[in-house]
Amino acid sequence: MASTSKASTSDTGSKGAFDGIAPSASISASKRTQKPCYDVFINHRGPDVKHTLATALYSILSGISLSVFLDSQESEYGDFLPRTIEAAMTSALIHIAIFSKGYADSPRCLAELSFMLKSGATIIPIFYHVDPGTDLRRVDKGKGMYVQAFKEHERKGRYSPQKLQEWKSALHVVSFYHGEIINTNEDEMRLRKNIVSRVLKEKNINVPLVVAKYPVGLKEIVEDFKANTLLSAHANQDVQIVGIWGMGGSGKTTLTKELYNEISSSMDRSSFVFNIRDAASKGLLHDKQKKLLNDLGIQGLSIDNIEEGMQILSRGLRSIKVLIILDDVDNVEQLDALLPTKDSIERGSLIIVTTRTFEIFKSWDISSIYKMRPLNLLYAKQLFCWHSFLNFCPLVGFEELVEKFLKMCNGLPLSLKVFGAQLNGESSKEYWESQLNEISRIVPNDIKQKLKISYYALNDEEKEMFSDTACFFIGEESSLAIEVWNGLGWSGQQNWERLLHKCLVELDDNNFITMHDHLRDVGRDIANKQSPYRLWIPHQIINIQKQKKKKIGIQGIIATTSQMEWRIKWGELASFPRIVENSDDADEFQVRCSDGELMVNTTGGIWFLAPKLVGLKYFVITGDYFNQLMGEVSRELVWLRWFEIEHRNLSWGLSLKKLRVLELHESYDHERKHHLEELWEESNAEVPVQLRQLLISHCYRFQGFPKSIGLLNHLKKIVIINCGNVRSLPDEFCFLRSLEHLVFRECYGLSSLPSNFGNLSNLRHLGFWHCFQLKGFPVSFKNLMLLEHLNLGYCEDLTFTSEDLNFLENISKLEYLNLSHCKRLEELPHHITNQTSLRMLDFSNTKLRVLPENIGQLSRLRDDDIRSVVDKLADLFWRFVFVDKS
Question: Residue 532: is the preceding peptide bond cis (ω within 30°)?
């Protein structure tokens, strides 16, 4: 089956699935040697729902070409599962469990539920006139309507106490899963509509990865890989672990991206884990475990250490066929942490590991190893020329120079790309000769030294931005980095485009910054030898502190991993005067004695370093140990990202005058002494008038904006996430005429907007996602004529008539419109068909029953957009079945 699915578990329920129910060997690999024969299995109590809800679901799902199993037999088999039932459950990727009042009376229903949990497939629960919080979750406590059924099972004595406890545990686990609750006929009609969308989303097809701008010779490399690893021959037999070995820049990641796009659709689940070596160096390997488990359907788990992740990986993947790609592994410990054992996953699964270090394969049972080879001369020339001349062949007169560069690059794709891009647009043969001479002085196999030639060809600002990107901005939005650089007086946008043009940095599909690891390492190597220093790895903080300089220039610090510790010998105490001056610091900053040495964690290291800091521009930090120091280090701050902030506001000595980007994140620790309630005191004379971007996240006591927010004339972007205490906005908020991007997400208390909201006439991107108390829009909303993106999803209380949406008539560039789950939406205005730029329109889960006659004029709608297709299909099919035929 060419599809994958994702688990439907809540944060609370996922871990219980592993604690309460052990994986069963009865679901063996031999039962799934063939592709799944069912998409959906419906688990139900026949006398309760077979001829009503279960049959209706069977009909609607079968009607959209899904293969659905619904047992036609009414007789009970006890807890014995016939082979046909077991085979259907084993093959189905999605299980729908209908919990009705008599569900627990049936041992077979309970046995099926236990089996389903052990299978690892997605479960969509439907709570049909039952309460999951009481009837399922508390049955073990003697409460709920299922208690009597279990007493009857105990009285009959047919099942062991262990079996009954297993069934209770299964009910407890599923009670936490995200499901549909049915209490009324209206709920049942809603369910029939929602279930199509839900099932199709669970069968989500993997979005292809972007492989290469110029995939020269890639098809032939893929075929060579398959032939040398016998990949096709073993596709449905044993678990295969294939190693790809080669030097940095040889195309390992490009090859595996192409393989992922080609193979993932034939697997139950797939995961591509990038940049493992870099994550391990930062102590973040458990985050990669979490990403892997999430991709494979095991969601919502809290993994605190690598060992815990290894245990879950070893037992959580049975009975599903998976594709796992582990990219850039450089030691056995990383492989141990991320690679499930062969007996823990289904036959036919494929794991691909890329590395520069051949030795790591010696400790694992690797099926085959593929060595990357240089591009042949033809493909090397084409790749170089595409980047340098935007054509597959050289310009006339440059043929000999091209041949010399090809010899220097030796078929290495990264060198061909970077040097080709560096020479793009350079028509001077003298310049080509000078670059060739620089490269020729370097040892042939020293790739990083060769790549430094491209760095030295940059101007001063570009060099600084290249180093900043390598140390701080990989994985960030490019707009954030550009605003930060502009705040330093640099030409951020212009220089950034030059770095892109030279292939020294890249952007992914979501506009996040990426960088080849060789180029990243070059940037970090250079940064390590420069002043001001860039500190992105915790141990650098301790090393810098040991310097005898009174003042140390620091460009930026990332300190979000406080659990890492370093030893400091007693003889080095002179470098840490604050320990000597005040012994209380040792307790506050977790500095402790161990074997005649001091152990200092990251947080303590920064605290001790702070008096030496000069010119700090970027600060990414977790914790609240820096109150007394922020006044010292914040005077030059341009970017501040603060996790777990513990202040009522920022009016306590923190310098805001140069800030360009401010991000404040709180946790859900209700026992904190202080919570962020406001940005700054109204009486505070200093406001961040240079601010361009503001993000506030999970600050549940944050009440809103001060009136002085209107003074931030340059503010372009505001994102507020999960701040439920924000109920309204001051009129002065609408003085932000430069604002282009405004998002309120999960701000449940927001109920109204200022009457002058239309003054924000420069807005391009506007979202009120999950603001379900928002009542309506002011008349001035029609002034937002530049809107390109409007997200009103889950604005359940938003009043909608065709007149309420008339503001759309004034907008000519709208590309994205999300009206999903707007429960009061009954019709779309006829003029929506004039939105000729519209690419995505989502009106699922609304009361909409009729589409405008000329909806077909929206010719740019992307029918290949998964969310759009799924939601429109579900909604339209529901209207066809339950409205048009009624």
Answer: yes
Which comes out higher in pLDDT, residue 156 or 714? 714
Q: Which two tokens stand for residue 117?
A: 């949990």
DSSP 356: S
Tokens of 358: 């051949």
Three-state helix/strand/coil letters over 620-668: EEECCCCCCCHHHHCCCCCEEEEECCCCCCCCCCCCCCCCCEEEEECCC
Whole-number Å distance between alpha carbons of 850 and 846? 11
The yes-or-no verdict on residue 834 having pLDDT over 50 is yes
Cα–Cα dist 859/836, whole Å: 7
Buried b (16+ CB within 10 A) or exposed e, 461-480: bbbbbbbbbbbbbbebbbbb
How many angstroms separate the Cα of 387 from the Cα of each of 393, 411, 414, 417? 10, 14, 11, 6
Note the Cα 201 to chain centre separation in Å. Answer: 17
What does the alpha-carbon distance between residue 455 and residue 476 come to, in Å, rounded to a whole number? Answer: 21
Place of tokens 């049909």: 128
Rounded-to-integer distance, Cα 420 and Cα 390, Å: 10
Q: Find the distance separating the first CA and the last CA of the chain, reported in whole Å.
A: 35
3-state secondary structure labels for all residues of 703-733: CCCCHHHHHCCCCCEEEEECCCCCCCCCHHH
Task: Determine the 3-state secondary structure of 124 from DSSP.
Answer: strand
- Give the three-class secondary structure for 569: strand
The Cβ of residue 773 has, within 10 Å, a number of other Cβ atoms equal to 16
Interval 706-713 mean pLDDT: 94
The 10s digit of each residue's pLDDT in 292-309 is 887 876 765 667 778 888
Q: In this prediction, what percent of the chain has a pLDDT beyond 70?
A: 77
Is the predicted pLDDT of residue 499 greater than 50, yes or no? yes
465 falls in which pLDDT band (50, 70, 90)?
Answer: very high
User: Minimum mean pLDDT among 377-381, 515-519, 591-595: which range?
Assistant: 591-595
* C-alpha–C-alpha distance, residues 706 and 708, integer Å: 5
Residues 145 and 129: beta-carbon distance below 8 Å: no
C-alpha 129: how far from its chain's center?
A: 36
Measure the CA–CA gap between 665 and 675, rounded to whole angstroms: 10
DSSP β-ladder status, 180-182 and 765-767: unpaired
The contacts found for 683-687 with CB under 8 angstroms, 24 or more apart, are 684/651, 686/655, 686/656, 686/657, 687/656, 687/711, 687/712
112, 346, 483, 666: the catalytic one is: 112
What is the C-alpha separation between 17 and 169, in angstroms, rounded?
8
E strand or H helix that includes residue 842: strand 840-842
Mean predicted lDDT score pLDDT of the chain: 80
- Whether the per-residue pLDDT at 7 is higher than 60: the answer is no
Close Cβ partners of 269 (under 8 Å, ≥ 6 residues apart): 4, 5, 6, 295, 296, 297, 320, 321, 322, 323
Distance CA 79, CA 484 (A): 64
In the chain, % helix, strand, coil (3-state, to 5) comes to 40, 15, 45
pLDDT digits (tens, 9 = 90+) for 385-435: 999 999 999 999 999 999 999 988 889 999 999 999 999 989 899 999 998
User: Given strand 350-355, what is the order of strands in its sheet?
Assistant: 269-273, 322-329, 350-355, 240-245, 368-371
**Residue 170 and residue 117 in contact, taking contact as beta carbons nearer than 8 Å:** yes
Please, which pLDDT band fits residue 870 given cuts at 50, 70 and 90? very low
Query: How far is Cα 97 from Cα 117, in angstroms, rounded to an integer?
Result: 11
Whether pTM > 0.70 for this model: the answer is: no
Output b/e per residue, 693-721; b: 16+ Cβ within 10 A.
bbbbbbbbbbebbbebbbebeebbbbbbb
Active site annotation includes 112: yes
Q: What is the C-alpha to C-alpha distance for residues 678 and 136, in angstroms, rounded to an integer?
A: 42
